[in-house]
Amino acid sequence: xxxxxxxxxxxxxxxxxxxxxxxxxxxxTTYVKMPVTDxxxxxxxxxxxxxxxxxxxxxxxxxxxxxxxxxxxTIYEPQYSLRSLLENGGEITTVSKEEIESLIxxxxxxxxxxxxxxxxxxxxxxxxxxxxxxxxxxxRTEHIGQSFVEEWSTETMDYFLPDxxxxxxxxxxxxxxxxxxxxxxxxxxxxxQYHEKYGEKLGxxxxxxxxxxxxxxxxxxxxxxxxxxxxKIIKIMKDQDCQTVNLTINKNNTLFTFKTTASPLxxxxxxxxxxxxxxxDRRKFEQLFGRHESYTLDDIAKITYGKRVLYQDEKLLxxxxxxxxxxxxxxxxxxxxxxxxxxxxxxxxIER
Length: 352
Prior knowledge:
Layout: H1 6-17, E1 23-26, E2 29-35, E3 40-47, E4 63-69, E5 74-76, H2 80-86, E6 93-95, H3 97-118, H4 120-125, H5 129-134, H6 141-149, H7 170-178, H8 180-198, H9 202-221, H10 226-239, E7 244-251, E8 254-261, H11 279-289, E9 300-305, E10 308-312, H12 322-330, E11 338-343, E12 346-351
Parallel strand pairs: 5-6
Antiparallel strand pairs: 1-2, 2-3, 3-4, 4-5, 7-8, 7-9, 9-10, 11-12
């Protein structure tokens, strides 16, 4: 028996697919084409564990292997036996069912966006007070803050319209593969389903789009908004190549310096867990603020890396905290870290 290498097997498979043959044996696997239309065949295969002189036998199952489109030279949803041969080169394209679903999702969403843009004012005017009262919006204050800090692209409706989720049944899957008018009908049907589910709410999503962008503009125009501080810290930390930093926080009018991993400072969040603080410092944090307490980006007074000051908020480093540090020392809390207190016209370094 002549051993067939992967490249040769691939060539034999392509020759079979492009031919008028309905059955072919390559190595110990038999492939069968069953016509659906003039251009599309269902592919099946039978793997024979023992060498057999017959292309098919009754000892092994005939299993689905994929769908072959002669016109596009594409195998849709190829199973393992076909994929393993096609990995050896050739001109045949493979597309999975998940990839088809993703393509349809993008097309339907594009159509919905166009529809919203073309009917923007009528959709908004169709919203009633009752619809507003019954609508649940995910755009709470924290989401708007996160949008500002992480610079989400809210200039278009992408973030406001519900996602399109496509799961193809066998009939729609085959119609998409056949192409032409059948493919258009598949996409049309999913677009129709989207409008049936969300159509009455499209005006509400437009209102959310306008309200959120208006709020973001307010934040942008107000330099005193704490979101600016969070955005600055996150940007600074993302630009740094450091694993750990020294952090000074002002929490409950108490200054505390500790070492922490840098990762939680790179992302938006309401609270930052003490999990990232080194164990010795974490115990001191719990003594000062409580076992289940956390801190926020708003509490940060200074960030240092080595001898470099990466960030500093002078408003949180007042002279009045000296007495607090003295009381901490009286409690027997030891530290090898430095506390820097800065106030107007006054600067004092305290070494503990």
